[in-house]
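User: Some background: our group keeps a shared notebook of sequences we're curious about, and every so often someone picks one and asks for a predicted structure to add to the entry. Today it's my turn. The entry only has the sequence so far, pasted here. Could you supply the structure so I can complete it?
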Amino acid sequence: MGLIKLIILAALIWAALRFWRAMQQRSTETSSSQPPQPDAPVMVRCAQCQVHLPESRALRAGDQWYCCAEHRDEHDNR
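Assistant: Of course. Here's the predicted structure to add to the notebook entry:
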């Protein structure tokens, strides 16, 4: 009688391990199949007020970046 209980216990442990491994593999596949996040925009700092803003919205004068035309003009007049 003890041998049958041992075989049933071993079968249950084996089935549980297979189920656990299948779930681990499924979660790994799900996380790796997600599309990559878009890249963050390049940020630059205004030479006048030190505010960071995306490069696409900034104004460039030489090697300096500015958040608006007023700051560009003020910094150039110094």
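Suggested note for the entry: The longest strand covers residues 43-45. The two ends are 97 Å apart (CA to CA).
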